[in-house]
Design a protein that fits this description.
291 residues; alpha/beta; six-stranded mixed β-sheet; two-stranded parallel ribbon; 12 strands; 23% strand; globular
């Protein structure tokens, strides 16, 4: 029987893939706190010992189905179509877990939830997956990675049963799985000619609006308390208005896999809350086995 051994909500923004000199330049002399935050997450990974990581990828948009990657090996050289001058030339070569992906596919068919697996050698990967793999050293550790998409033509509440279905597929396998929601909280970009409020580009005052900062910090507090049901209950009235990245599909699928509104996994904040082009970013770890 498979098992979910941990979960994390992580930032993947492209600025973190730049060299330390440039990051410190953007940070008014200090690096982003998300960088040492990755080291803390790596320590947690060493403690829970997953053999597979499922990354809920906020850049992999699908239509008609929630999909999981089922290839045995994924390799290539990444160039971002979004910002090719800034994120390019990233080689990747990592193991997938086709067996787990097929169990998830079967769970989708059995449950009637539109979750399926796909394997296509010509499909490129997204940086919401690749950046996480690189910062967590998953290639070096030999940990398998399965990307999961965010379906763009479903309601926000339909991400929850998708996550539940993925959890059923995990249970039907023999995998030890770490879930990662890869993306931001509020995801409203600053305008192209915007000028920083604070010279440290990562500072929270540079997030797109004070209202988004307040909302994001409220959500972080609820995650720390394990009150995911309260976030879900307030999604329509509060968090949907804040334009979480990919409709919040990364967080909602992860929490759906952990029990949905009944999930009480308490989060440990592993970094400062930071800005990235107006979006709100943070690393949070959840000890799911202590629920």
């Amino acid at each position: 029987m498979g098992k979910i051994v941990g979960a994390a909500f992580l930032s993947h923004h492209p600025g973190l893939m730049q060299n330390e000199e440039l990051r410190k330049l953007m940070g008014a002399g200090e690096d982003s706190d998300l960088i040492p935050g990755y080291a803390k997450i790596r320590q947690k990974i060493a403690e829970v010992k997953p053999d597979t990581v499922i990354i809920f990828d906020t850049h992999w948009f699908t239509t008609g189905f929630h999909l999981v990657e089922a290839s045995a090996r994924i390799k290539g050289n990444f160039v971002s179509a979004e910002m090719p001058w800034y994120l390019f030339g990233v080689d990747y070569d990592y193991k997938g877990n086709p067996e787990l992906a097929h169990h998830i596919n079967d769970a989708g068919i059995a449950s009637g939830v539109r979750v399926r697996s796909t394997a296509n050698e010509g499909m490129h990967q997204e940086y919401a997956t690749i950046n996480i793999i690189k910062h967590l050293h998953l290639e070096r550790l030999g940990i398998s990675v399965v990307s999961a998409s965010c379906c763009q033509n479903c309601r926000w509440d339909q991400f929850l049963p998708a996550g539940k279905t993925i959890a059923q597929g995990i249970e039907n396998s023999d995998a030890r799985v770490l879930l990662i929601a890869s993306g931001a909280l509020s995801h409203r970009f600053n305008n192209i000619d915007w000028q920083p409020v604070n010279p440290r580009i990562f500072h929270e005052s540079n997030v797109s609006s004070p209202e988004n900062v307040a909302s994001d910090k409220g959500a972080i507090r609820l995650m720390e308390q394990g009150k995911h049901g309260e976030i879900i209950n307030n999604w329509e009235s509060e968090y949907k208005k804040r334009n979480w990245e990919a409709f919040g599909g990364h967080y909602l699928q992860m929490i759906g896999a952990l029990g949905g509104a009944h999930c009480t996994a308490k989060g440990t904040v592993m970094s400062d809350y930071e800005n990235a082009r107006g979006t709100g970013n943070v690393h949070i770890w959840f000890d799911v086995e202590q629920q």
